[in-house]
Amino acid sequence: MASPFPKDFLWGGAVAANQLEGAYNVDGKGLSVQDVTPNGVTTPRTEGPTEDNLKLIGIDFYNRYKEDVKLFAEMGFKVFRTSIAWSRIFPKGDELEPNQKGLQFYDNLFDECHKYGIEPLVTISHYETPLHLSKTYDGWVNRKMIEFYERYVTVLFHRYKGKVKYWLTFNEINSIVEEPFMSGGIYTPKEELSDQDLYQAVHHELVASALAVKLGHEIMPDAKIGCMVLSMPTYPLTPNPDDVVAAMQAEQQNDLFADIHARGYYPKYMNRYFKAKNINIKFEDGDEEILKHTVDFISFSYYSSICKSGDPEKGKETQGNLFAGIENPYLKASEWGWQIDPQGLRLTLNKYWDRYQKPLFIVENGLGAIDQLITDEDGNKTVKDDYRIQYMNDHLVQVGEALEDGVEVMGYTSWGCIDLVSASTAEMKKRYGFIYVDRNDDGSGTLERYKKKSFYWYKEVIRTNGANLIGVTKKL
Q1: Residue 3 falls inside a structural domain
Q2: Strands 325-326 and 317-318, bridge-based pairing
Q3: pLDDT at 1 over 70
Q4: Is the pLDDT of residue 183 over 80?
Q5: Residues in contact with 248: Cβ distance below 8 Å, sequence separation at least 6, in sequence order
């Protein structure tokens, strides 16, 4: 009996430049929005970099990438998802010429990946808008951002067209609705930002994303360019029709982004919302035509699900990946309160496949947990993270079920395949990796790397193409 995973399934891991590279002011790099958010997305930003910002050093990937890529290769990675720091290429964001030292770093990184047969999967903009663009232009509220982004992606596509086959335009593009500064570089405080300006910024990003698809197909005909959305399955809290409608409306707020990327136009269900909020999206000449340049595949993050109710007094609030909802009484939660719902991944895969009929790519999934570094019986430092193995096994089993359902899934890159600084809380103690990095929340540590128990487990998952998963449906 064979595994349900196709032979060409892209197994790997995912990271973001701002969470692991460090070297925030090295080789001409400019500041990004991440350099002024030392304590996470929900805390006040600072005027400039501060010593308590763990992201300034990250895990020193900028200097240690060869060591880390070698570890990824040992696990058998077929693909490695990372991002390019926009402010490494254009330090301020509005320059006419790129920073060559920044471009060379990614040349070196991609060459190192290819040395081991690992395909890079590159996110063009992953929560790291150049700070100058945020302060000077108010980020994506300003239409000039499309021009700056177009210049940026054109440089990337010409430079790396022989080295990068898979591209993502924006990370979790729908998260701009909840986190406009981190996601959209919008400097106006969230509580002062009008609905009109927020959704005009959304429109500018969507046009820029479609423009990147157009340019990518022209410059790199063999490349595949996808969108990336934060998936958050939303269940009605009860069968009460009011709850079902509330869940439907919440889903539509997220579906908007993938719908436009996959179909090339605004869905009509948003007309009612825009009317109620007095939002009038301003289209410039050519915007409608640009939006018709649809993506080659849909990629998404998946960590948890939430519930919604028509009665705001019902249920207990629970946290998720940037989006909050009502606690599901049938699910357990992680140490950070994210409810664990493996079947939600199967549901998401089926929904997106039925809705778009485009290949799907799970580019983030994993368990943030507090790991304890120990010395095993052989004298090696490690982490016995059976809880992570269980979480990932259960989610991958559901990917197998979706494949059996007939869904086309390109690959799976686990989030934070090596420990890095958390995006939401800016902590090191919230660890996702197969590789433990000796760095602590107070900045102490040697930065040494140690293989966790999950390192060897994932290596076996890749080697067997998922056949070793416990509970996976086998093809007859």
Answers
A1: no
A2: antiparallel
A3: no
A4: yes
A5: none
Q: What is the 3-state secondary structure (H, E, C) of the chain?
A: CECCCCCCCEEEEECCHHHHCCCCCCCCCCCEHHHHCCCCCCCCCCCCCCCCCHHHCCCCHHHHHHHHHHHHHHHCCCEEEEECCHHHHCCCCCCCCCCHHHHHHHHHHHHHHHHCCCEEEEEEECCCCEHHHHHHHCHHHCCHHHHHHHHHHHHHHHHHCCCCCEEEEECCHHHHHCCHHHHHCCCCCHHHCCHHHHHHHHHHHHHHHHHHHHHHHHHCCCCEEEEEEECCCEEECCCCHHHHHHHHHHHHHHHHHHHHHHHCCCCCHHHHHHHHCCCCCCCCCCHHHHHCCCCCEEEEECCCCEEECCCCCCCCEECCCCCCEECCCCCCECCCCCECCHHHHHHHHHHHHHHHCCCEEEEECCCCECCCCEECCCCCEECCCHHHHHHHHHHHHHHHHHHHCCCCEEEEEEECCECCCCCCCCCCCCECCCEEECCCCCCCCCCCEEECHHHHHHHHHHHCCCCCCCCCCCEC
pLDDT of residue 41: 81
* Amino acid (1-letter code) at residue 315: G
Active site residue 364: yes
Identify which of 10, 9, 80, 13 has the alpha carbon closest to the alpha carbon of residue 415: 13
Range of the domain at 392: 10-463
In this prediction, residue 472 carries a pLDDT of 55
Sign of the dihedral through C-alpha 44, 48, 51, 57? positive
Please indicate, yes or no, if residue 468 is contained in any of the structural domains. no
CB 340, CB 331: distance < 8 Å:
yes
Which one of 251, 364, 404, 427 is the catalytic residue?
364
pTM: 0.97
CB atoms closer than 10 angstroms to residue 422: 22
Q: Is residue 19 part of a domain?
A: yes
CATH number (domain holding residue 301): 3.20.20.80
Confidence of residue 475 (pLDDT cuts 50, 70, 90): very low
Distances (CA, A) of 372 to 48, 431, 442: 33, 10, 16
Gap between the Cα atoms of 454 and 382, Å rounded: 10
Q: Which of 218, 227, 207, 205 is nearest to 288 (CA)?
A: 207
Average pLDDT over residues 201-216: 98
Quote the number of domains for the chain.
1
410 located within any domain? yes
